[in-house]
Design a protein that fits this description.
Layout lengths: L2 E3 L5 H9 L9 E5 L16 E5 L11 E7 L13 E6 L15 E4 L12 E7 L13 E6 L15 E4 L10 E4 L3 H13 L11 E5 L15
Parallel strand pairs: 1-2, 2-3, 3-4, 4-5, 5-6, 6-7, 7-8, 8-9
Antiparallel strand pairs: 9-11, 10-11
């Protein structure tokens, strides 16, 4: 297993190795030690590799991930998993603001708390936060799921499109055009699937409330969403 010690080698060397994996390569598991809050760790992955980062990272870790499985054994700065396409990113600690921003697919799991604007402009990503989230989360969320086991801050789902939000704890306030909606059988089934994938045990999907768009602020027809 390749091991990159970021106290000894430049970050560019790690990301270059992750971007230049030969077809049929056997070394698909990477370990990163001494990240020391480095920015842009393990960005732009487009292969089914696993990366374990042993420590906390700075800005934009795992950005644009497409197929990799990245675990940060620590906390992450702003923009973790930004614009993720597919794969899985797990943050064992806390995440700073705009985690999962503009994400188009894949699963982001934050085992601690997430700061403000978690899931801003999400476009298909699934985000599961074991703790709490800050204000303006899922702002302009277009599609995907945001699942929060703790509490949500002010203006949850402000200007929301069709992303689905599930919160188990309290919500300080709802943003413009975001309303509480019925938790139906199909939502319970999806919640159960996401909780299992995120390693959540002892929590029932029925304990959550669902929030979504009142559809009063935007002008496109949801039946034609694939055409936009």
């Amino acid at each position: 297993m390749p091991v990159f010690d970021l106290s000894l080698v430049p970050l560019r060397e790690l990301n270059s190795a992750l971007h230049n994996i030969a077809a049929g390569a056997n070394d698909m598991n990477f370990e990163v030690i001494n990240p020391r809050g480095s920015h842009s760790v393990a960005v732009g992955i487009d292969a089914a590799v696993t990366v374990d980062v042993r420590g906390s990272v700075g800005y934009y870790c795992a950005g644009m991930n497409d197929g990799g499985e990245i675990t940060v054994h620590g906390s992450a700065g702003p923009g973790v998993a930004e614009n993720m396409m597919s794969g899985k990113v797990v943050i064992e600690g806390d995440a700073s603001q705009y985690a999962g921003a503009t994400g188009r697919g894949g699963l982001l799991v934050i085992k601690g708390n997430a700061a403000s604007r978690c899931g801003i402009s999400m476009k298909g990503i699934d985000i599961v936060v074991h703790g709490n989230i800050g204000h303006m989360s899922a702002f302009m969320g277009q599609s995907g799921h945001l699942v929060v086991l703790g509490d949500a801050g002010d203006a949850l789902g402000d200007s929301l499109y069709e992303a689905k939000l599930f919160v188990r704890g309290s919500v300080k306030s709802l943003g413009a055009d975001c309303i509480e909606k019925e938790l139906r059988a199909e939502h319970i089934a999806k919640l159960a699937e996401l909780l299992e994938k995120a390693g959540v045990v002892g929590v029932k999907p029925e304990e959550f409330k669902r929030y979504g768009s009142a559809r009063k602020l935007y002008n496109f027809n949801i039946d034609n969403a694939d055409a936009y």
